Amino acid sequence: MTENFKIAIIGAGPAGISAATHAAELGLSHILLESSPYPANTIRKYQRGKLVMAEPAILPLRSAVTFAAGAREHVLAAWEKNLQQHHVNLRVGAQVVQISGVKGQFEIKLSTGQVISAEFVVLAIGLQGNIHKLGVPGQDLPTVQYQLDDPLAFEGETIVVVGGGDAGVENALALAQQNRVFLLNRGEEFTRCNEGNLQLLQTAIREGRIEPRVNASVKQVEAINERGFSLSLVVKTTEGKENILCHRVVARLGASPPRKLVESFGVEFPHADIMSVPKLSSQYESNVPGLYIVGALAGYPLIKQALNHGFEVIEYILGHEVELADESLLKAKLAPFLPSYSVDKGLASIQRRVPLLSGLTTLQLREFLLESEVFAPTPDEVIFNLHDYSNSFFSILYGEFAVYTEDNDGKEISFLLKEGNFFGEMGLLSGRRRTATVKSAGHGVLIETPRRSMLKLINSVDSVRRTLDEISLRRVVQACLAGSLKEDELDYLVHNATVRRYDAGQVLFNQGDKADGLYLIRRGSVMIVRMNEGKEEVLAYLPAGNYVGEKALISDTPRSATVRAAVATEVILLETSVVTEMLARNNTMRDIVVTRYREHILADQKINFKAQPDDLFKFLMQQGVGEATDILLIDYSLCIRCNHCEIACADTHGGTSRLNRAAGPTHSNIHIPTSCRHCEHPHCMKDCPPNAIHRSVNGEVFITDSCIGCGNCEKNCPYDVIQMATIDPNHEQRSLMQVLFGSFARKSQKTVSDVDAPKKAVKCDMCKDIASGPVCVRLCPTGAALRVGPESLSMTMRSNQPS
Amino acid sequence: MKRVSLLEFKHYRYFKVSGFLMAAAIAAYILDRPEPEPFGGTVLGYILGIASALIVVFLLLYGIRKRLTPRIPVLNKNVEHESASQRTTSTRAAPHQNEGRYGGFTLQGWLSSHVYLGGSLIVLATLHTGFQFGVNVHTLSYFLMFLVICSGFYGTYVYLYLPRLVTENMGEDTLESILLKIKDFDRFAEKRALQFSDEIIELVALSRQKTRIGGNFFQQLSGRQKNCPTTLAVQKLQGLGKGYSDDKLKSFHDLYGIMAHKETAVARARKDVKYKARLDFWLYFHAPLSIAFLVALVAHIAAIFFYW
């Protein structure tokens, strides 16, 4: 039998709960479908007592659901109460596998085979994805679980762990401490887990603590009551079928990204990038009429935004006009510059003036403006300086702006940018320092957009990506080669350029290859290596903004060295024929390239006397020095292991040290402690819901106190340098007695020991608020600590010759 | 990445400063012809005494300076819009000036001057005495100063000499990782040993239970354990492999290998503990002696007023 509803809401997260509650409030026939056993499952999975934040503070809340910042338990209780009060038709454990049909008559198929029909569908499934289940009879038995919160909660049981990925292996290892554990892997070998886990696993298998079954798949799970066991598993391996009796099954089979599922409903994403969000109308309607998308999946990751969407989407479905929650905010933002316009008209006028933004939907433009700042700089005001480390993006609404930059000889070049143009994309795309100074020329108005919003836009709106790509190509070519190129010459080069992307370690070209062109490095960095007597020797390290490959090109000889990407790298390739033609046409460019060629030859000869200690170089690259803008190194031939760097760091930063001196690898007396590298493209910034991670003009990557403690950055950092710490606001300046008698005096101080106290992410901020620089370096008694960036790296390398 | 040591700091800046001070003091002492003889109460004696006292005060300040760290407000100001912070321009030096990029004070410089100026006191204070020694508070304070300086010299020596040895000994490991390895060896060995005689089981078990790393202060410094049960086990195992079948012999060699690895690991761990103890222990003399010296020095200065 098919059930009929007006509105089916899929996903009982904040957006779904808000939509369903509003629908219930209005008396609409509705159903709220949730695949997990509880509503608000993601928030339920937060640790106990965790503070749920209500960012952004300026955005008003408009929803039938109550919400304010508070402990996880309070928020959940309030929502459950809301659901009950309004008699929301909630169905848990209902996993949607298929949506078909059209507006007015959608058919929603559940994993149980049940079909629900609805006139409208609201997708509010967030980004967590659907956890893969065993896919066999018995998969939903209560002792078959798909996550493991506390491995120590089980003792003396026989447990079957299914899945040889990191999650499965880690669970198996933890459970094996107190239980008999079988580990089932689909393949012959455990290739999907990382090196460290693999070693631990092999040890555990050798010692008989874990009993593995490879090439194994579960065929059936049955509840039994036999010899104290509660489950019976039929497992198929290459050797035939095996029956395993156990108490519990822990299946860690991964989750399918929601995107695939959403695409199967017919929704289109404009771009393959994971940051891409589906294209939506201003009323949250997707390209499938009648199918609405709200919340995190629509690109709005914060709880408050999701709650507002839930309310608004119901109003839209009913055909009502809604004044959006952000209307007043936008009005306030635009009023000084477009006083006579309504918000809608203002938005239209912005799109008319700035062609880059014309491809945005109204919803995207609103979001874009909400996150941006509109301001009118005074005449001659500096917007940013050459070598600043800012990375926001500027669009010119009115007026003219002057760009001052230098060519390779240090000669100053300047030009004007007019209304409708934009600037700042080089810093945004390369993750490096600004390559020019920009000042306002006369009275103008700018829109300044933060890095994250701009990246989201580039990955969601194709026209923006195309325009930026083309312009940035021009500017990179111009910056690398010469400012003196004429427009048509530049056009010619850009038109014939190709962009290539390389993973870390991938080869751009090999020693002995025929020269295929000039490689301009736009992002990342490369190493130049040469084989010498069967040993690889690193000749140089070049960061973005340089080019390689001119030597073979000019002398028309095979490549004299191999060039390899040190980190993920993007280059612009200008082919040989194009470059040769341009060199023949443009003498200035020819001079520049030939000068560089001579310099390289001369530098090569010097290097031949003094080879780089390339093992050290490789080691540094492996440790992420190639993508670092500023990394802490310790010369272990001077370090007395006093840990004063840690003590000073902790004292400076409220009692929590942001570096771990002893941890981290060492190579020929160079030690890399666990401490932030301030990456060019910080991994931590990738997925920060409140956008609390920023880069300051001096390059420091830091976290502001709008951090909601979600722990995403901690997980995303490949170098393990972010930790979740309780912040002690009472950490005060010590008295002289405390300075003199240190730990004795400090014992009397109150310490925050409450394990349930809210935690925030903390990391190195390079002591950005202390003018004289990072205390770890300054307060090292023996001067063993130093910081290096990409620019100084090759210089420091040279000075580190073995004596 | 080779850094300059604290002795070489800024091209031996403080070596030059203290060298100049000492040379000037010696020259003045030679040229001075006080009546009836050189002692602390002559004009030059007072000058040298006051200079030495000032240097002592400066040296003592190192202990405080080292512990004075600047404070950043615990919570970063909430940046509502990233843009707001972006339009301020760079305040720090450009990236290529890595050496001394932040200028100003470094603790390394302070320590360098601490070492050299401390050393110069030997000359300055000795000349201040005019070689007049006796059994009194004045000579006591001189003697204490001498001890403080000697312990300081020893400290400088370990600071310069030991770090390399620590690195060589540990390689890629940390003390923690070595201890984990030792634990692993113990587990393997005990499991392996089960198939052999009680004597072997006993040796392995003793090695697990009684092997000590660290311990009290002197044990740490010695870096050894008398009759270390692991060494003993390895030695005794050598003679116990007779008469086994091929299979069992292979197992036995495995066990021997594990115990030999453990012995090496234990030795490395002890060495690390020893080095760290040596890096630390001299301070337990240097710091209290400094305080004792300070007390004696105050007494010495106060006593002078009674002569007036």
Structure, briefly:
The complex is a heterodimer of chains A (803) and B (308). Chain A has 803 residues and is an alpha+beta fold. Helices cover 29% and strands 26% of the residues of chain A.
Q: Largest protein interface?
A: A-B, 94 and 68 residues
The biggest sheet of chain A amounts to: 7 strands, mixed
Q: How would you characterize the largest beta sheet of chain B?
A: none
Helix percentage range of chain A:
25-40%
What portion of the residues of chain A fall into strands of 2 or more residues?
A: 25-35%
Number of domains of chain A: 5
Q: Work out the number of β strands of chain A.
A: 41
Number of helices of chain B: 10
CATH architecture of the largest domain in chain A: 3-Layer(bba) Sandwich
Q: How many domains is the backbone of chain B divided into?
A: 2
SSE pattern of chain B: HHHHHHHHHH
Terminal Cα span of chain A: 84 Å
Shape of chain A: globular
pLDDT < 50 stretches of chain A = 743-752, 798-803
Explain what this protein looks like in three dimensions.
The complex is a heterodimer of chains A (803) and B (308). Chain A has 803 residues and is of the alpha+beta class. Chain A has five domains: 3-129 and 257-325, FAD/NAD(P)-binding domain (3-Layer(bba) Sandwich), CATH 3.50.50; 144-253, FAD/NAD(P)-binding domain; 328-460, Sandwich (Jelly Rolls); 488-610, Jelly Rolls; 620-798, no CATH class. In chain A, strands 1, 2, 5, 6, 7, 8 and 19 form a seven-stranded mixed beta sheet that branches. In chain A, strands 20, 21, 22, 23, 24 and 25 form a six-stranded antiparallel beta sheet that branches. A five-stranded parallel beta sheet of chain A has the order 10-17-11-12-13. Chain B has helices at residues 9-31, 43-67, 82-86, 107-129, 137-170, 175-193, 198-210, 217-222, 229-238, 246-307. The model of chain B is unreliable at 76-86 and 93-102 (pLDDT under 50). In chain B, helix 6 (175-193) runs antiparallel to helix 7 and helix 6 runs antiparallel to helix 10 (246-307). At the A-B interface, strand 21, helix 19, strand 35, strand 36 and helix 21 of A face helix 2, helix 3, helix 4, helix 5 and helix 6 of B.
